[in-house]
Description:
The chain has 433 residues and is of the alpha/beta class. It folds into 2 domains: 9-26 and 240-426, Enolpyruvate transferase domain (UDP-n-acetylglucosamine1-carboxyvinyl-transferase, Chain), CATH 3.65.10; 28-229, Enolpyruvate transferase domain (UDP-n-acetylglucosamine1-carboxyvinyl-transferase, Chain, Alpha-beta prism). It has 12 helices and 23 strands. It has helices spanning 28-40, 54-65, 100-109, 131-139, 174-182, 201-213, 243-256, 276-282, 316-320, 345-355, 385-398, 416-426; strands spanning 9-11, 19-21, 43-48, 69-74, 77-82, 94-95, 116-120, 143-145, 153-156, 163-168, 190-195, 218-220, 224-227, 236-238, 259-263, 286-289, 293-297, 305-308, 330-333, 359-362, 367-370, 377-379, 401-403. α1 (28-40) packs parallel to α2, α1 runs parallel beside α3 (100-109) and α5 (174-182) runs parallel beside α6.
Amino acid sequence: xxxxxxxxxxxxxxxxxxxxxxxxxxxxxxxxxxxxxxxxxxxxxxxxxxxxxxxxxxxxxxxxxxxxxxxxxxxxxxxxxxxxxxxxxxxxxxxxxxxxxxxxxxxxxxxxxxxxxxxxxxxxxxxxxxxxxxxxxxxxxxxxxxxxxxxxxxxxxxxxxxxxxxxxxxxxxxxxxxxxxxxxxxxxxxxxxxxxxxxxxxxxxxxxxxxxxxxxxxxxxxxxxxxxxxxxxxxxxxxxxxxxxxxxxxxxxxxxxxxxxxxxxxxxxxxxxxxxxxxxxxxxxxxxxxxxxxxxxxxxxxxxxxxxxxxxxxxxxxxxxxxxxxxxxxxxxxxxxxxxxxxxxxxxxxxxxxxxxxxxxxxxxxxxxxxxxxxxxxxxxxxxxxxxxxxxxxxxxxxxxxxxxxxxxxxxxxxxxxxxxxxxxxxxxxxxx
Length: 433
């Protein structure tokens, strides 16, 4: 059973720089995509290395309510008995918690379900925008009731028509991935046009590659993509460790001058957030990349940096939280889209860094941190897993910091605090809980 400490959780500074191997659980993004693809593949698929977390649980429960059979075949292995022929309208609304991938992917998949599908979530989900995707699906002729532009919503499905969709690219790549995943079941090929620059583009590339792995095909065009009608084939699929979650041990190595290796995540990584190690190189760390592992060796102090993190925005807080340890300003640009995540992450990270005594300036799409001496504080989590985990790294590096709500890490990394405790034990210190 995962040990989940209660807050506020005080994190003392590690007495020495860690030197260890840190195993990161499977990718949330890949797990939830693989679940949808296996659900639409006619037959039995075996998913290995899956992440068990709040977000993937909501996806699994949603698919089960839609008629797909999913069962455990090992600690991190799921067998999915899928196929569009199994899909049916659920008896009750699908509860998705605060899982963005779940609500967006299932909204598109619901167009293939004969009958109404209602999706609802927690209070935070009721503020997460979905209007761009709703408008796009309506352009194809799908009937959707969505009074506020956010969940709850009801999709009246039965078919996903062919045609053409135009959606703004600046808010969430998940709108595009959702239509790509469900698109093989459309009545014919359809085009997706991107209006403006597509945010978090690497996640769309993950989707395209995984669709191809299951037998689909998505072409890139000058203005977007063409999703080809296809029949997904069941298969065995291995899920790599979560690159966004790996940013925390990598950041810890950089912040402490330690050496941390994450196995099974290397040069062949699907996930764009693996490029966070490039960011750490720019702030002074040494990175050793191999096919089956990556090692970060820290060099303190960190260097100040001016960087565009548009394509790897889920790791913005991993950098921002260790910015107080830099020898100069850290300026993170072109990340307006993180304002519509689990919380307004630009505002949240600025508020907590200021609570810790830092000089912070924000604009609509950027964050500038000028390091100052750290003050002791309880860091608010905003029910956001990445706030808790990112600032935990700063606490481990410097101490005098507590995490208000440590349990929120269950959204994507339920074993995070167990791994933190193991790190303290490795350096000869008692775990903080």
